[in-house]
Amino acid sequence: MTYVIAPPEQPALPVVGTDHLFPVSRVFCIGRNYAAHAVEMGHDPGKEAPFFFFKSPSSLTSDGVFPYPSMSSDVHHELEMIVALSKGGSDIGIDQARDHVFGYGVGLDMTRRDLQGEAKAMGRPWEVGKSFEKSAPCGPLVPGAVCGHPEEGEVTLEINGERRQSGDLNQMIWKVPEVIAILSRYFVLQSGDVIMTGTPSGVGPVQRGDVMHGRIVGIGELTVRVT
User: Fold this and answer.
1) Cα 46 to the chain's mean position, in Å?
2) Is the pTM of this model over 0.85?
3) Residue (of 58, 154, 148, 53) closest to 106 by Cα position
4) Tell me: the pLDDT tens digits for 99-145?
5) What span, in angstroms and rounded, lies between the C-alpha atoms of 167 and 156?
6) In a 3-state reduction of DSSP, which class is residue 144?
7) What domains lie within the chain, and their CATH numbers?
8) What is the chain's Cα-based Rg?
9) Are 193 and 26 in contact (CB under 8 A)?
10) Closest Cα partner for 133 from 64, 55, 212?
11) Which has the closest alpha carbon to 37: 79, 68, 74, 75?
12) Distances (CA, A) of 46 to 31, 35, 59
């Protein structure tokens, strides 16, 4: 059997300290997973059932460049910890969830906020604001065997040397094991799945020429230039 067209290149992320690549299957994103960010977006931060949306795997990049996208004049940064799964399954227990994690990384959920707002107002899906080309710049993954399974650690983002976002992993409403367990009730998770775990408060716009520098203590750093 042969393909009628050439298959697309496999999306992948580098693994720190090696020449290996982690093949990406799907990208799940959890919304409003930090209380302060929920408040700044005009929502009640109470611990209600979480909700998820997708980014395309091809949205992930690791070249340190974010091309300012078309059809928007209000593109925002959202720094997040990413979780990469080495195995999948359904109805995964919270106590077993970490056994499914390959590693962690630093990523950006770049958002066409104006288009997302328009979609919200009309009750439409968010993908036009979230899942566009190169909308998820990421750093290399750090295996859990190296960094452990962090439950706390400062999360910061600076633009041109000015602090914009600041939080801590321990402020996540839904912790990583809970997120994995809940997702596995709705989807059969797969090896290669990536989860973006939400952003702390301080999200805001970027401009062409800006340099974004994100850091999560215990995991790594990420520098991305807006072009």
Assistant:
1) 22
2) yes
3) 154
4) 999 999 999 999 999 999 999 999 999 999 999 999 999 999 999 99
5) 6
6) helix
7) 12-226 (3.90.850.10)
8) 17
9) yes
10) 55
11) 79
12) 13, 8, 30
Q: What pLDDT, in 10s, does the model give residues 165-215?
A: 999 999 999 999 999 999 999 999 999 999 999 999 999 999 999 999 999
For residue 209, count other CB atoms closer than 10 A to its CB: 10
For residues 82 and 105, the answer to whether their CB atoms sit within 8 Å is yes
List the Cα angle 177/182/188 in 5-degree steps: 105
Query: Which tokens sit at 113?
Result: 């906020």
Helices (DSSP H) in the chain: which residue ranges?
35-40, 113-121, 127-130, 144-147, 176-186
Give the DSSP per-residue string, 155-206: EEEEETTEEEEEEEGGGBSS-HHHHHHHHHHHS-B-TT-EEE----S--EE-
